[in-house]
Write a structure and sequence with these properties.
The structure is a homodimer.
Chain A lengths: L1 H9 L5 E8 L2 E8 L2 E5 L1 E3 L12 H7 L4 E4 H6 L3 H6 L3 H5 L5 E4 L2 H7 L3 E3 L4 E4 L6 E4 L1 H11 L3 E3 L11 H20 L8 E6 L5 H14 L3 E4 L8 H12 L8 E3 L5 H9 L4 E3 L2 H7 L2 E2 L6 E2 L19 H5 L2 H9 L3 H27 L3 H16 L2
Helix pairs in contact in A: 1-8, 7-8, 8-9, 10-11, 11-16, 12-15, 14-15, 15-16
Chain lengths: ~375, ~375
């Protein structure tokens, strides 16, 4: 472990993280990568299959997305990482020249595979696509992410389920820590690809502490908080985020995985978290659920049949500048592809704009009042 | 009929058609509308439900589409023409400020409705959406198209099936001619909306002549050839187009409805046809069938798995400039929405570019050699 840690410390870190200012525990930061700057707190739209569903890469640029997330698990199964390597890596494949983060597949194995068998060596699982059997190891996960060529790779982890006994969580944690060390060792490019560790430990404070301390000792380029939003009560999730974020090194980016309810995001940013990803804006958009400055809208509702007003009169996105609720409802009811496009564009704009406002508020030292002011709007969007 | 004819002659014709040059019987023309110029021969992409499937109106502009077609039948059933009227008409609804042509619904009643009952008064049919019963008359069809506010409306017609006895075709023709007169009478806007008649008559030359003569007498703004590509052999279709086109007035636009095989288009343009519409480029795109300068490509084929080259190296569309066959195959296999977008964009570009080339060839008096040169490529695209 020490050898690995030393190797990492001596490597060429491909990312640089600097904190521009803080507001209580909230941080305004900047991650500099070879492919561009990521302003934090940052929202990473999810491009599971090397595409943010329904969007073109140009549109993602236009929305101001600074980094996209893609899924190692999905790309390993289809089209296969060797194919992406052959055609020049994931950036070229999906024509996105900005930073990319690849998830390690640990969560997908946990949530998508109908069968998984975990051992120290790795995880045997069944493909959700064709039922074929695969064996993922930390080494293979690093190999895949190396082939994809993402700017930030994630270590392979076991996502501890909820509920889990302390014993299960401890065992899961040991696996994850051991795998993290192996991932660090398996880095192939001398550190050009940043590598983030994932803190597990379920809802057990002492296990979260143990996980964080062991991983911090190994000196990763960033730290994620994993294993949350897997069924635990909100209060417990917030508590765990609050507790865990403070265990992480100040000078490294902190990433809360898979959390996208913006009330949770506010809570996490207040605790010092810097990075987020979630399918909420994109998945909800495809289901016709749209976030607005006046609360959530289900576009299929009868009342919008002949409503000539824009979805959100205060929104400046392409959808709101150009189309009426009546048209958006019509497209949705007709199951037109343009419906998913216009809805996704709007919801992503809502998210990315929210993050821009959040950063402004931290910059101006008014994050606490921003949070208070946003809470009722977000309640109407996320907890109706 | 004479009263109606007079009314039409005295109305403000919203379109002006001029022939710039001819090359044998092929015509290079220009339709001037209040919303813009349509260069002919013109291809009209189909936007059935007030959207060209998967495309944004901006993208259609970018592709160089000069006119879109939308469907009266579909928009009458959903969302309903009164709703579109309330929100300011179809252009505003779908945010397309260029010219629009609306099909009258005759063909859709024929091809989509599980039940139809035809009388002199009109057609009773069942909605393909919910099975509800509706009664379309020439007057209602004009009312609907008036509410939509298209630049070019089509008369309500009965699409004569194939095969049909002479007796059936004659009766169908009588209906269509009578309905055309009623449509002309039912114009509500004093001629601001152009109105095209539809020549029927099946495969019977004398009936096509009778139909054309009766309709020409009524003086419409343009003339369509309908009732083709409904199952008749290609040779018979070409013969009918050739024969019928020459019966139509020289100084009015001629529109061959629903034909999109570009070999048929070349044949029709040679016979003096000016306007076309077809779902071939868009529907094929969504099924992964792509037209290229080297023949048709089915993007799902195994051989493209790791092919880094563009779909069509000679194509300048967004898809070909940015993405590899490997990526397009991956998107298609993953049923990603972006697959349908990129494919549709390419196929529409292929069509619109083909029409641009065709116009250039007529302009330069080399349509015949253009046709000869294009034939092998088109065979590889349309008759493999």
């Amino acid at each position: 472990m020490n050898a690995a840690a030393r190797l990492s410390r001596e490597g060429n870190h491909s990312i640089k993280f600097s904190i521009i200012t803080t507001d209580a525990d909230a941080r305004l930061g900047r991650i500099t990568t070879e492919r561009g700057v990521i302003n934090t707190p940052s929202f990473m739209p999810v491009g599971t299959n090397a595409t943010v569903k329904s969007m073109s890469p140009d549109e993602m640029k236009g929305l101001g997305a600074e980094i996209l997330l893609s899924n190692t698990y999905h790309l390993y199964l289809r089209p296969g990482h060797e194919i992406i390597r052959q055609v020049g890596g994931l950036h070229k494949f999906m024509k996105w020249d900005g930073p990319l983060l690849t998830d390690s597949g640990g969560f997908q194995v946990f949530s998508l595979s109908p069968l998984r068998k975990i051992s120290d060596r790795g995880v045997t699982f069944r493909s959700h696509l064709d039922g074929s059997t695969h064996f993922l190891t930390p080494e293979l996960v690093m190999e895949i992410q190396g082939a994809l060529g993402s700017d930030i790779a994630m270590v392979f982890d076991e996502c501890t389920p909820y509920p889990a006994t302390r014993e299960y969580a401890l065992n899961s944690l040991r696996l994850t820590t051991g795998w993290a060390a192996r991932c660090l060792k398996a880095r192939v490019d001398g550190g050009r690809q940043a590598l983030f560790a994932i803190v597990q430990g379920g809802i057990y404070r002492d296990l979260r502490r143990q996980s964080a301390e062991e991983l911090v000792e190994m000196d990763f380029d960033g730290y994620a908080i994993g294993g949350l939003s897997v069924g635990e009560p909100k209060g417990l999730m917030h508590e765990t985020v609050n507790y865990t974020a403070r265990l992480l090194p100040r000078h490294k980016p902190r990433y809360l995985m898979g959390i996208g309810d913006l009330l949770d995001v506010l809570e996490a940013v207040a605790a010092g978290v810097d990075m987020f990803d979630c399918v909420m804006p994109t998945r909800n958009a495809r289901n016709g659920t749209l976030f607005t400055g006046r609360g959530r809208i289900s576009i299929k509702r009868e009342e919008f049949r002949s409503d000539p007003s824009p979805l959100d009169p205060d929104c400046g996105c392409y959808t709101c500048r150009n189309f009426s609720r009546a048209y958006l409802r019509h497209l949705f009811m007709s199951r037109e592809i343009l419906s998913m496009r216009l809805n996704t564009l709007h919801n992503l704009h809502f998210y990315l704009e929210f993050f821009r406002k959040m950063r402004k508020a931290i910059e101006q030292g008014r994050f606490s009042s921003f949070r208070k002011a946003q809470t009722p709007v977000l309640r109407n969007n996320f907890h109706e």
